[in-house]
Write a structure and sequence with these properties.
There is one protein chain. Helix 6 packs across helix 13 and helix 8 packs parallel to helix 12. The chain is mostly helical. Helices cover 77% and strands 1% of the residues. Strands 1-2 form a two-stranded antiparallel sheet. The longest helix is centred in the C-terminal third of the chain and has 39 residues. It has one domain: Orthogonal Bundle (Hydantoin permease), CATH 1.10.4160. A hairpin with a 2-residue loop joins strand 1 and strand 2. The structure holds tryptophan. Tryptophan binds next to helix 1, helix 2, helix 10 and helix 14.
């Protein structure tokens, strides 16, 4: 078997993991759910969800990955002999197949819109009605939607094909800073427009009357999705870490990057929408229906549109890469396939699996499974069932089955002097003294994490799960 590759640097890992996390969830979904759920008030709840559930589970997945140096299936198997837990790993790999199949369809649309911005300068979008019908026609066309989906999958395959260092890490180091630069440019552009402050107010001024218990569960579910948790993507990326990395700091960085990009995305979108006099409450239609009309009205709109849709496409691509890597790692580790072969075969398979999703906005609109279009069915199954259940299993597994103690021992490789713990010590008013052996503080941080992982995360994730599938109504 080939030797397991490792990230060449800590920053390489952080950028790759952040690349997985930063995706359509940040740029397309976070802004509109924030706008709908009370702006700044929702942001506060979202941050709490990130801190109490997102960060602990993120750390948990990364620890399991580094400890076992395996894909999700192999990871569960090497820590526990029970057949049941292996199933949780399989569910993760299956989720990789399913999510990527429709994620790539949407990723394809963003490529299509990059092309449109250059080719037409959004001349089709003089009104929202025109812009929306253009979008419907585009997604309904089997030719364009499959072609764009194919190009998008091809890009993801090409990156994963090259392996961890030369593929994923290298491209993350190029693409993540690019995302950051583009989003900053767009934020400045948006804020410089006349009337943009209304947009900032809409997006961020707290309105507690719009914040319901429903919003809390939405925040929780989204925190989870946005951080790519629940299917072993972070197990897989963690499995390419070497023993001398500080896992707590790295997880914290990934979580911070993901959250900052999500917040900035809203600042890139709403000020411009308001400045151009368009309604902000189009929900999922914000990006593909409203924004083209916004760009059509702007000077050099085709340039700004090009930047914006490139941003979305890049964010989607780095997430797609991590989905494909989960699938690939499984076949490489467990079935001893060659990476290059596994990537091509299963990448192609995922492309084929995505075709019915691509068609479900056009010729297969009326084909339904369990009352949903193919796209919605796959999305719902993976995002609303597999991911939350996977997250529930991973928290329970580490909190109660494998044990917090061995997990903490694993974290201590690479963070022997526990800078992270000094942070807690500082917060607790204790003086930071790196020279003394801080075992007591270690217990403090570890037990805090243990409590989150054993009690708070599984319960919170499970309740959010019941809510998303409609078993609890609020
Ligand atoms: N985090 C990605 C986003 O915000 C979507 C996502 C969810 C994901 N689960 C994942 C990506 C697992 C990669 C792996 O769009």
């Amino acid at each position: 078997m080939e030797r397991r590759e490792h990230w060449s640097s800590r920053i390489g890992f952080i950028l790759a993991a952040a690349g997985s996390a930063v995706g359509l969830g940040n740029i397309w979904k976070f802004p509109y759910i924030t706008g709908e759920n009370g702006g700044g008030a929702f942001v506060v709840v979202y941050l709490l969800a990130i801190i109490f559930v997102g960060l602990p589970v993120m750390l948990a997945e990364i620890v399991v990955g580094r400890k076992t140096q395996r894909n999700p299936v192999g990871a569960y198997m090497s820590l526990h002999r029970g057949q049941f837990w292996k199933l949780a790993g399989y569910m993760g790999v299956l989720a990789g197949f399913l999510i990527l199949s429709f994620y790539s369809v949407v990723g394809g649309w963003t490529l299509g819109y990059i092309f449109k911005s250059v080719a037409t300068g959004f001349s089709f979008a003089s009104t929202i009605k025109d812009s929306s019908s253009e979008f419907s026609n585009f997604t309904a066309s089997p030719y364009y939607s499959i072609l764009c989906h194919a190009v998008f999958m091809f890009l993801a395959i090409a990156i994963v094909y090259k392996g961890i260092r030369k593929g994923i890490e290298r491209w993350s180091k190029i693409l993540m800073p690019t995302i950051f630069v583009i989003i900053l440019v767009l934020v400045f552009k948006g804020l410089s427009l006349k009337g943009s402050m209304e947009g900032v107010r809409y997006y961020l001024s707290p309105d507690f009357s719009k914040l319901s218990s429903r919003s809390v569960l939405i925040a929780l579910g989204h925190a989870f999705f946005s951080l790519s948790l629940g299917m072993g993507a972070m197990i897989t990326y963690g499995s390419y870490l070497s023993k001398n990395e500080n896992l707590f700091k790295s997880s914290l960085m990934v979580v911070i990057i993901d959250t900052v990009i999500a917040l900035l995305a809203g600042l890139a979108i709403f000020p411009a929408v308001f400045a151009m006099g368009f309604p902000p409450d189009a929900g999922p239609g914000l990006v593909f229906n409203i924004l083209p009309a916004v760009f059509a009205k702007m000077t050099f709109g085709s340039f700004w549109g090009l930047l914006f849709f490139s941003l979305v496409a890049i964010a989607a691509l780095t997430s797609a890469v991590s989905l494909l890597e989960v699938v690939t790692a499984y076949f490489v580790d467990e079935l001893k396939m060659k990476r290059t072969l596994a990537v091509v075969i299963f990448g192609t398979f995922i492309f084929l699996l995505g075709i019915p999703s691509a068609l479900s906005f056009g010729v297969w609109k009326h084909v339904s499974i369990a009352g949903k279009s193919f796209f919605d069915f796959v999305d719902n199954l993976a995002s609303n069932y597999f991911l939350p259940l996977g997250g529930f299993f991973i928290s329970v597994f580490i909190g109660w089955v494998w044990g917090v103690k061995p997990a903490v021992d694993e974290i201590r490789h690479g963070s022997a002097n526990f800078a992270d713990v000094h942070l807690i010590a500082l917060l607790a008013g204790l003086k930071d003294d790196p020279s003394h052996n801080s075992d007591i503080h270690v217990v403090t941080l570890a037990s805090l994490w243990g409590i989150f992982l054993r009690f708070i995360s599984p319960v919170a994730v499970f309740i959010a799960f019941l809510f998303t599938i409609g078993a609890i109504r609020l």
